[in-house]
Amino acid sequence: MELQPESDGQPAIRPTQFILHSIAAPWTARRMYEYWRDSSNLESHFGLGYEGDLGQYIGTETRADANYQANRRPDGTGAVSVETASNLQHTDPWTAKQVEQLIRLGVWLHQRHGIPLRICRSASDPGYGYHRLHAAWSSGGTTCPGDARVRQFRNVVFPGIVARANGTSQEDPMPTVINETQEGGPTLVPHTYKQLAMANDAALLQGPCAYSATTYATVRGQAGTRVTVRFYDDNLSTKHRSYDLPIDCGTIGPDGVLNVAVTRNGVLDGREVLRVEIKADRSAAVSWRVLRALRWSS
């Protein structure tokens, strides 16, 4: 569904990134094409409806204007973008059909353009991302996509792209089972994150790998104390940390105890480790911690 005059009139790019958007409208790929065709609004390379209908509007080696500074950089590199149907507040998750098409498209872009199988570590770093990941991808700030889709991107879509591009499920079908249990843990200062270390290392897992990991912790303190946990990827080479959204784990009960369980699925490259932090809004202490994980070597 070629958009003109954009398809012929906009400059060439060398694609190095794939950025995922939500359009805040429950539209089909055809309706997205008609909207951009009949308006002067910014366009993406692709549009994806709820039913998995995928339309292409601009060639992947031509600039599309949905990603602000990532559209085309002075060195000629740029991002390929896809708009995806969503509710009006872009708070709903992608459908199973949308997830499948995003994985297929992500694999094709890796094979066709050599986009590296990693999450973009900076606004110009080659790889995969979602619109709100880096401020330089939006001129006025954005909450696109919503929290549900960010979690899907990190836990389902991106790991699915990596696994399918690498044939992980066929090359390495049997994961390593990790089960670590330790007594004790950090004392929590109010409103301050502390590492929830496992074994002799603060890292839960190190790449290259795909994984499914659950961290458990017993937290003791005053009843009503709220506990929050967050995961992050730590690149040992660049020292860049990619934080997940905080997970609200609830409050300590009348017996002074809260048992926490948080899960993360994802992919680490050879320079990355997975870490987890915990905080409370009052003084508390971790008295027990457990890591249970499945790890697939890449």
Describe the overall structure.
This protein has 298 residues and is α+β, with helices and mostly antiparallel strands. It has 5 helices and 16 strands. It has helices at 6-9, 29-37, 96-113, 147-166, 168-171, and strands spanning 14-22, 46-48, 54-56, 77-84, 127-130, 176-183, 187-188, 194-195, 205-206, 209-221, 226-235, 241-243, 247-251, 257-268, 272-280, 284-297. Strands 8, 9, 11, 12, 13 and 15 form a 6-stranded antiparallel β-sheet that branches. Strands 3-2-4-1-5 form a 5-stranded mixed β-sheet. A hairpin with a 5-residue loop joins strand 11 (226-235) and strand 12. Helix 3 packs across helix 4. The longest helix has 20 residues, at 147-166. It is elongated and about 65 Å long. The two termini are 37 Å apart. 39% of the residues are buried.
